[in-house]
Amino acid sequence: MYSGxxxxxxxxxxxxxxxxxxxxxxxxxxxxxxxxxxxxVVVRYRAKYGQGPPHDIKPTNWKVVLAIVLIMGxxxxxxxxxxxxxxxxxxIPNSPGAVTIKVEGFQWAWNFTYPNGQYxxxxxxxxxxxxxxxxxxxxxxxxxxxxxxxxxxxDVIPGKVNQLWFNxxxxxxxxxxxxxxxxxxxxxxxxxxxxxxxxxxAWNAWIQKG
Amino acid sequence: MGxxxxxxxxxxxVVGAILALLMRVQLSVPNNNFLQAAYYNQAVxxxxxxxxxxxxxxxxxxxxNYFVPLQIGAKDLAFPRLNALTFWxxxxxxxxxxxxxxxxxxxxxxxxxSYEPLAGPIYSPGPGPTLTxxxxxxxxxxxxxxSVNFIVTILWLRKPGMTLxxxxxxxxxxxxxxxxxxxxxxxxxxxxxxxxxxxxVGTVLYAPPSVLSVPGIDPSLLWxxxxxxxxxxxxxxxxxxxxxxxxxIVPAFTGRPLAGKNWILLSTAIxxxxxxxxxxxxxxxxxxxxxxxxxxxxxxxxxxxxxxxIIVIMFILSMVKGRVQFxxxxxxxxxxxxxxxxxxxxGVFLSSPVLDRVFNGSYFVVSHFHYVMxxxxxxxxxxxxxxxxxxxxxxxxxxxxxxxHFIVSFIGFNILYAPMMLLxxxxxxxxxxxxxxxxxxxxxxxxxxxxxxxxxxxIVAYNLLYTWYRGEPAGPNPWGSEDLEWSSPAAGMTPAAxxxxxxxxxxxxxxxxxxxxxxxxxxxxxxxxxxxxxxxKHEVHLSSRPLxxxxxxxxxxTGAALYPGILPLGLMVIGxxxxxASLIGWAWDxxxxxxxxxxxxxxxxxxxxxxxxxxxxxxxVFLSSEMVLFGTLLGAYIFIRxxxxxxxxxxxxxxxxxxxxxxxVLVTSGFTMVMAIIAIRKGDQRGLLAWLAATFMLGSVFxxxxxSEWIGLVSGPxxxxxxxxxxxxxxxxxxxxxxxxxxxxHVMAGLIVMAYLxxxxxxxxxxxxxxxxxxxxxxxxxxxxxxxCFVFPLFYLL
Lengths: 210, 798
Prior knowledge:
The structure holds two protein chains of two kinds.
Chain A: H1 11-44, H2 62-85, E1 99-106, E2 109-113, E3 119-121, E4 123-127, E5 131-138, E6 143-147, E7 152-156, E8 162-167, E9 172-180, E10 192-198, H3 200-209
Parallel strand pairs in A: 1-5, 4-10
Antiparallel strand pairs in A: 1-2, 2-3, 5-8, 6-7, 6-9, 9-10
Helix pairs in contact in A: 1-2
Chain B: H1 2-27, H2 37-72, H3 80-99, H4 127-156, H5 169-201, H6 219-254, H7 261-272, H8 291-319, H9 328-350, H10 356-359, H11 363-393, E1 395-396, H12 399-422, H13 439-470, E2 472-473, H14 514-519, H15 526-532, H16 534-540, H17 545-562, H18 566-591, H19 614-643, H20 656-681, H21 685-714, H22 727-762, H23 772-797
Antiparallel strand pairs in B: 1-2
Helix pairs in contact in B: 1-2, 1-13, 2-3, 2-4, 2-6, 2-11, 3-4, 3-17, 4-5, 4-17, 4-19, 5-6, 5-7, 5-19, 6-11, 7-8, 8-9, 9-11, 9-12, 11-12, 12-13, 17-18, 19-23, 20-21, 20-23, 21-22, 22-23
């Protein structure tokens, strides 16, 4: 949804957008049906002068309940199925060409350590069109590492290593693309980092230089 | 009591709202400097805690207090003095939370979710958070006592002939709410007990790896599990009272009975138990839990929406072919259902672990839970307030103002929270932001909405005052409802009825739902009415003890939070003194039979059966909550043990032979307790005293050995200091300290009660026919022993 700045949509964002639109269509439809029904009923059966008391009603048929359960069940099963199919966004791909970068969150900045042992603070540099795997951990408190543009996010927990992956499709510098999404103290709002995407040749040259 | 609750929760609601407005001012434009980060974080944290624990829940409980007894034809709650205790504990806790703003360092600032280790002593030092969390513990204690009281009231005090299925829907939802409370709150008590132990005593239960490098331990996940196991049911605890209100109002304003009443009840029952306790990990999708768990909790979360869907559709179907009257309460019902539908559907989005990779921690979540907790809950409770205002005051509110209030609230609400749906890339709880994308516009709109929504509440405040002073007489049953609370005269109909709490003898004492007392023995069948002698009855159990017990606890805990220093120490001493004196006084009142009112009225409709006495039912309900508490704590212990890659070998920390002997002592005390019951069942008072004394002695030996073990641990070279040679031992000692300590506290409490029982026995207080207290205590004592039977092998042998 928010990856509009990129002309070529990265795979994680594409998967997310597809899934979101799926939920959006059914969610909006459900809201329109339920709220529409409610408003229709209250307007249609509003009290008018000179009316007698309402007729007695038959007890609610179990078939109505069954219908609700079935309709909701089918829609939710569809939603669940689509979500399961989109777990590719979460599962770490087993790709030989992947680049793995260590990320350590601390109050209140991000430290990125690259395969060549170099590190950078508050700027993550990655090669374009390459699967990048981040190993996330925290030095102090609970943080959450998110790149809204790519629709990826994972908690950064002390004593634990979590992983996420993405694949950027365009080179460039994306300021403030990386943010912390978990209250982590007074610097929470400033726990921001840039994402820099370089060409594969530039990356390789830099990595080999060490 | 209901009115006290009502006004107190409104007070806390105003505090929470002011905090919210401060935040909205700060966020109205980018790079604002109105509220510094430290203050913003306190505001965001305390807004959440105060709104949830001291406004939303208590507002529902206020209505329970007032209308559940009326709806079931009971003269009061089952335990009126415990009800007073519930209120004063709730108020004391709230005052402590508010007070924490004014201590050095300020209030808690780690979010209402209090994620560890941020909320721990290292990253949130200072007395403020401790004070807040201790206040929360008082609140949780209040909830536990209150839940027991309501469950016993609803199961035991219904008027003759009213079966469970004939209860009004609001009472049903009250029952669902308190059952959920009973099982959910032990988990947060356990979670905060561990935090407070870290903060006050210096244990290392949630210590981060940088401090306590035990391989495998990540304290954050333990907190997440404990907190959200409570946290998700809490959402329903907040919501269900509003649904109860809606279920009562829909028939009254459509002239038709509720469609599918039994389906609504069944759906709600399924939501409360088990579903609400089986979805908590959807708050933890990003924590690195295995994919399979994410899938399981995705599905379980989706399943929640089905019973809720049934409930909403049934409400709508109830209106079909009715005579819908657009009075203010019904407008708020429509508003609540619309907003709940929107919020609920947003919840389905959040159930997807993949979509959650964007929404988690963003304003989308903020929007979602405000749609549910403010939209559905507050609009539903407003409906209830307007609906029952004629019953509470005997007067009618201004319909014009009511409608205006609804319209402005509904529009303001949506201007406030709808833009947040689109802010799914903006992190929540940031105190400022740069001017990027559409953030400035959306936040600006939301801030305008906040002031519109807040302004709407001035209308209702005015309307309440207007009703109180100028309202037209409402008549006995203005809505034509068939529920029982309308069949008794409204309070205002009898001008002498005291609506406001009246100080009695200089103390604001026990004030049970005043209008019940004042107006008449509400809706009891005439045959029974005579035996109630309502006004006389209330003087009988009027007591200042619940107030002083709570005040003493508050002073003590405030002192504990501010410790060290002379003043805090003084506060602690005074607090302990007041509480102890009040408890002794309370026991002494009882020994002198001060409260022996008229005998219980027989013939009420009871469940499970008449054979179980009121006290015993209460004890069982209480113990079931205790079971969850110890279960949660032992679960936490196993969690830590399993995660840690090393653990001290059995016998290396504790003395196994000594502990085994001590276990035998405790088991023997169970046997002597049984002998005490057998003695009094025969009417043998001397035998009772002897066996009680034996039990007391054995219990004392047990606790004596425990204390010596404890002191041995604490006074060791460096008990909890992680820098010591073996951090694993420090962690093991910490877990031992808290759980065995809590069990020890239970044994101590048992000893104190035993002392009281012995004193009362010497005065001939128990007879062959009347010895319920002994039997109830035996249940408690058996529970304490059973807990030990789990603790002993887990901590000593394995």
